[in-house]
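Z., the sequence and structure:
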Amino acid sequence: KKDDDVDADKDGTPDVEQIEDEELIIRKMSLVVTKMNPAKVDNAMTAIYRIWFTVIATLTVKFAMVVTLAMTLSDFLKDAINRVLKPIVDQLIPDKYAKWVPVIVGWATKAFAMSIAWTIQSVICAFTSACEGGLIISRTLIKMLVKEGITLGGILPKDHTKSVIDEYASYGFALLGFLFQWKMGFDVPFPFNIVLFPLEISEIYIRWTITK
């Protein structure tokens, strides 16, 4: 803030208003670098680095099945995709960049395998969450009805552990929940997808990181 008011040439106009945008950015970056405490920055970056690797290590263990599936699919599809994709990429890439063709094809194969593995994982997660959510809804609904004195002639129990009606009801709720997620493509519906877009990008990056 003080830098914005500096008028070194005493012409009545702040220096920041008399320089080009490029020079202003350099000036502000220089100011930040000179004012920062290098030791604190180093400690902060180290802490972030450690936390990041802890998160990645935890997720890698948690989603070991997905990682294994993605790597297996990648190895299985590598030769087939290489035969189909490599000639096409060879025609598109100039000769001086030909050494990058195997790398590009490898990335494409890995991305394809990852998409299949994570789609399968999404279906599994959607199914399990639908089952759990269905049971929560059915038990909560029964409690609310019983609390209001609605027992449907004694069909609805006061204690769900003494009846299986909550489980039967949960099947219907679970089916509706799973079908809804299926219809949404296992993605966040509009308009929440716009608000949560940065988190989706982060999720994609984390998926790639733990699967690579």
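The chain has a mean pLDDT of 77. Helices lie at 21-35, 38-62, 64-92, 101-147, 165-183, 192-195, 197-211.

Let me know what you think.
H.
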